Amino acid sequence: MNERMHEIKDRLRLAMDLAGKKSVDLTRDVGVPSSAMSQYLSGKSKNMPIDRLYEIAKYLNVSEAWLMGYDVPMKRTREEPPSSMDLDNLDLQIMKLYKKLSIEKKKALIQFLKSLGE
C-alpha cells in the first residue's frame, strides 16, 4: 500500500466508495456532523474521537485500526460483543438526549428509571 493510503482521509474515502456511501449518509445514519466529515475528508482534521471512529468503522464495515492507518486487514473480521466503548457510546447518546429534555421531562425520566431498578 502506498504512503498516501496511511491517512484517515484516504482510507475513509476508499471505505465510503467501496460501501457506496457518501458523506451525507454518514451524517444522517451515524450522526457525524457535516462540518466534521468535511474536515476528515479534506485532511484538515487527522484525528477523530474514538467513539466516532468506532461508529464510522462499524457503519462502513472496516477495521478501526485499518481506518486509523495501521497495516491490518481492511474488513471487519467479526462483530465484537458489546464492549466498554459501546457502553460509553450509549451513555453519550443518553446524555445528549437527556440534555434536550425540559425539567419536567427530566424529572419524569428519573422517576421512570428508578421504577425500572426496583
Residue-averaged pLDDT, rounded? 84
> Mind telling me the CATH class of the largest domain?
Mainly Alpha
The count of strands amounts to: 0
Residue windows where pLDDT falls under 50 for at least 5 positions: none
Helices, by number, come to: 7
- Secondary-structure-based class equals mainly alpha
Give, in order, the helices and strands: HHHHHHH
Determine the fraction of residues in helical runs and give it as a percent range. Answer: 55-70%
The N- and C-terminal alpha carbons lie at a distance of 56 Å
Going by CATH, the homologous superfamily of the largest domain would be: lambda repressor-like DNA-binding domains
* Amount of beta strand: under 5%
- State the domain count: 2
Indicate the CATH topology of the largest domain. Answer: 434 Repressor (Amino-terminal Domain)
- Overall spatial form: elongated
Rounded to the nearest angstrom, the radius of gyration is: 17 Å
- CATH architecture label name of the largest domain: Orthogonal Bundle
**Largest sheet, if any?**
none
Describe the structure.
- By secondary structure, this protein is mainly alpha-helical.
- The chain folds into two domains: 1-80, 434 Repressor (Amino-terminal Domain) (Orthogonal Bundle); 81-118, no CATH class.
- The protein is 63% helix and 0% strand.
- The protein contains seven helices and no strands.
- The radius of gyration is 17 Å and the shape is elongated.
- The relative contact order is 0.11.
- The mean pLDDT is 84.
